[in-house]
Amino acid sequence: MTVPGDSSSAKFTATRDGRILRVTITNPDRLNAIDLATIEALGDTFSTAADDPGVRAIVVTGEGKAFCTGADLSATAGGAGPELVMDVAARMVRSVAETPLPVIARINGPCAGVGVGLALAADLIYAAESAYFLLSFTNIGLMPDGGTTALVAASAGRAVANEMALLGGRLSATAAADAGLINAVLSDAELDTRVSAAAEKLSHGPRRALELTKQALNATNLASLNDALAREKTGQVELLGSPDFFEGATAMLQKRKAVFGE
């Protein structure tokens, strides 16, 4: 049975497949960019999934050729201020890390912006060869968010985190696997087989043991996540009102190189 998102405008589905909950972002025309309604509904879904005793594992992915290319420009539509948008995005990322159920990210294509935070908050991350990871925030006068200032460093170390965050270039799936950012890079044909095998094993494992194991691992490896989300909110709210962001966003829409102030 397919369960729609909590909001009628949310672009995702949550589908029970035996003991596995398959969460799929469904905005392929925008490469699965996520608006505020979708971000909020995804957070609700991960937070409440454990209330269903029949669900033992979660797989999150994107429809079509992309995993998630970040926040849709319409995320602030309807009068939502930057503080609210940042809070809702932080809750989504936190809900993935805090759900007692193991979460697998199936990265089937481009993964950018807050989509990187969504992916790296998962417990196991498998990517297709065609996928890549991108934190292009500084290219438009912003800073990385979605917990990525902590999540990238926790997995791949300071050097990779600095290069991704400061230079804003793409990291291929192969390079991400080599750096330890993800568990494995697979051919497009092999991706589903690997993800399904891991999900099936987890869904029939000892629920409480897996929950306590996840808690212990995250307590060590993601101890700085909440502090990172708080710093990102403070910085991003400031930057969203800056001349550099106005120039960066304008340049992006006009498909030209941004010229930032001195």
Automatic annotation (TrEMBL):
It comes from [Mycobacterium] kokjensenii. This is Enoyl-CoA hydratase. SUPFAM superfamilies: ClpP/crotonase (SSF52096). Belongs to the enoyl-CoA hydratase/isomerase family.
